[in-house]
Amino acid sequence: MVKVATTPLDRTRVAVTALKLLNQTGLDGLTLRAIAKELDVKAPALYWHFKDKQALLDEMATEMMRRMNADLTAGAGPGTDWQSALSGALRGLRRHLLMYRDGAKVYSGTHFTDLSYAVPMEAHLRTLTEAGFTPGDAARAWFTAYSYTIGYVTEEQSMGPDPVKEEGGYDLAARAERLAAYPLAAAAGGEMFRDFDAGFEKGLAAVVAGIGATMLET
Predict the structure, then answer these.
(1) Do the beta carbons of residue 108 and residue 159 sit within 8 Å?
(2) CB 103: neighbour CB atoms within 10 A?
(3) Prediction pTM value
(4) d(CA 133, CA 111)
(5) How confident is the chain (218 residues) per 10-residue block, as mean pLDDT?
(6) 3 Cβ partners below 8 Å, 6+ apart?
(7) Which long-range contacts (CB under 8 A, 24 or more apart) does 66-70 make?
């Protein structure tokens, strides 16, 4: 028998519950029915708040943004070194995305349901423009680095070990065997699919350096 929820059901409560279940089921296994069961309500009750799963993902991504807001904003501000501020924000973004199984997939391509994203964006755009970027180049710089981070974590979570079971991951030996005729491509696997922390930092440094070389007015 389905119990009646004692706490009022709202969008935030559903999103928080969905994020909790995400680590157990992964994105593919996350269903409105499973969320309703966790909330002790009937599945149709969720449709009062979300017309479909994409609407739910939008709210989940927004809740993730609310939680990471302070980390993304830390370091940005007048007089701050733009490279350090930007790099710090993206490390914070990656750290938060990795807190959730398939976190980057949930976050990517969604539409935020409130303006919580505007606070870190405004802070970093101001830091960049005060460092000499035009408003247009500041926007492009922020979006380029932001996109690199989301893309990197998407691949990291797809190729790395299961964050819950702590097992699995890309079989580099099998990959190298398949690519035996292509020695450089075979050897590249160790760089691309192991030590994701170091790989992220190398890529981030290249992105930030490239932004400075191509977008900052001198």
Answers:
(1) no
(2) 25
(3) 0.87
(4) 27
(5) 59 93 92 89 82 91 93 79 94 95 93 93 93 95 96 90 61 91 92 91 97 87
(6) 40
(7) 66/114, 66/116, 67/96, 68/92, 68/93, 68/96, 69/116, 69/119, 69/120
